[in-house]
Amino acid sequence: MVEVFHAHFTEHAYPMHVHDVWTLLIVDDGAVRYDLDRHERGTPGDTVSLLPPQVPHNGSPATSSGFRKRVLYLDLTQLDETFIGPAVDGPDLVDPLLRRRVAQLHSALAEGGDALEAQSRLALISERLRGHLRPHPVGGPSTPERGVAHGLRDLLDERLFGGVTLDEAAALLHTHPAHLVRAFSGTFGIAPHQYLTARRVERARRLLLDGRSAAEAATASGFYDQAHLSRHFRRHVGTTPGRYARGGTARA
User: Fold this and answer.
1) The sheet that has 92-94: what strands, in order across it?
2) Is 80 left (phi over 0), alpha (psi -120 to 50) or beta?
3) 28 by DSSP, 3-state: which?
4) What is the mean pLDDT of residues 81-93?
5) pLDDT in the model for residue 9
6) Does the pLDDT of residue 182 top 50, yes or no?
7) In sequence order, which residues have a C-beta less than 8 Å from that of residue 104 and are 6 or more positions away?
8) Rounded distance, CA 232 to CA 243, Å?
């Protein structure tokens, strides 16, 4: 992934231009009309638009109120040049699950600090885009899903503090990143990033009960900083780390 861009335009119109990366676009309010390869296109309803690299396009509001958009720019490691032709033929995808995943990735990137979550969500998005552009089965790994899932769980447990990137885990387990996420989620009923966060919160909880400060517990548990710990601690435990440390009791 190269860049994230959010914008709200009421009158601005883009001239014809090109990018050297993929443009993955969702529109939250209003609509956009654009020309791509001499064909008029648009973003009605809940579409996801994928504009390929090196293909000229423009863009302007299709409604009087303008439009509000969120954009991800993806490099060619996510989708290579062989997908450009299919994307030119069908750039606007009606896929509620894909749109939801794109929105979730934007939210994960906005919160920051959870690289594994962002990488996992991006892997599933890229896989779904490839399925739209080239709708036939892609050869998967021969490793049984259960073995892959348990391998990733062991790796996450080993790397609780430092973490591991999705690409690194996939290489170590000899499988595709998207398959790794699906295998883990299907086996354990929880996404890899959720598992890692839960383990880190549990470690931080025990450190707090041992008298460590919230800042110390955060860094010793693999969180980016105290604010990062506090955000997830409140979600998991229902209170802040400081309040928990002052009033919590150890449980077996």
Assistant:
1) 3-9, 67-74, 22-30, 47-51, 92-94
2) beta
3) strand
4) 92
5) 77
6) yes
7) 121
8) 14
The encoded tokens of residue 38 equal 């001499």
C-alpha to C-alpha distance for 163 and 169, rounded to whole angstroms: 10
- Exposed/middle/buried for residue 58 (C-beta within 10 Å: 0-12, 13-18, 19+): middle
Give the pLDDT band of residue 42 (cuts 50, 70, 90): confident
Encoded amino acid at 29, one letter: D
What pTM, to 2 d.p., does this model score?
0.74
Cα separation, 239 vs 252, in Å, equals 20
CA dihedral 191, 192, 193, 194 (to 10 degrees): 50
Compute the average pLDDT of residues 158-172.
Answer: 91
Tell me the one-letter amino acid at 105. L
Structure tokens at 248: 């919590």
Query: Among 126, 127, 108, 110, which Cα is nearest to 118's?
Result: 108
Distance CA 32, CA 67 (A): 7
Residue 143: pLDDT above 50? Answer: no
Contact between 74 and 21 (Cβ < 8 Å): yes
The total of other beta-carbon atoms located within 10 Å of residue 195's CB is 19
Residue 204 tokens, joined: 């931080």
